[in-house]
Amino acid sequence: MATFKLNISDKKGKTISKEVKEKDANPFLGLQVGSEIDAALVGEAGKLKVTGGSDKSGVPLRPDIHGGARKYILLSQGVGLRNAEIGQRVRKLIRGSTITEEVYQINCFLDGELKIEEKPQEVEKKESAEKPKKA
């Protein structure tokens, strides 16, 4: 059975992490980078767009590679390659765009707004900062 760590972000820059296991993870199997799915599967309102991810060893998903297999490809820019000089090309290990059971992390974009709950410690700090001190 598959287990995924979902990183869900919204347009305001807020991000949350959720872990989906077994039956909840099955709808994500077979999706490709760029496809959309209903956000009700993870308890949010709206649509989730899959923007990327990586497998258990950290190999990134690349949207222009078909399938879910790992391949060595020649890169000059884009996902999986950092700081390439002009004209430089590097052979790197990349995973295809299809989500399989080997994928560990899935990056998603929510078209709505995330509701982030504050931790009790943060609420106490805000309340103590708002109360005026008596002289």
Defining traits:
34% strand; five-stranded mixed beta sheet; 135 residues; 1 helix; globular; 7 strands; mainly beta
Characterise the protein shown here:
With about 140 residues, this protein is mainly beta. The chain has one domain (about 5-65, about 95-130). About 10% of the residues lie in helices and about 35% in strands. The protein contains one helix and seven strands. The chain has one helix spanning about 120-130, and strands spanning about 5-10, 15-20, 35-40, 45-55, 70-75, 90-95, 105-110. Strand 1 and strand 2 (about 15-20) form a beta hairpin. The radius of gyration is 19 Å and the shape is globular. The model has no long low-confidence stretch (mean pLDDT about 85).
Compact overview of the structure:
The protein is mostly beta strands and 135 residues long. It has one domain (3-65, 97-130).
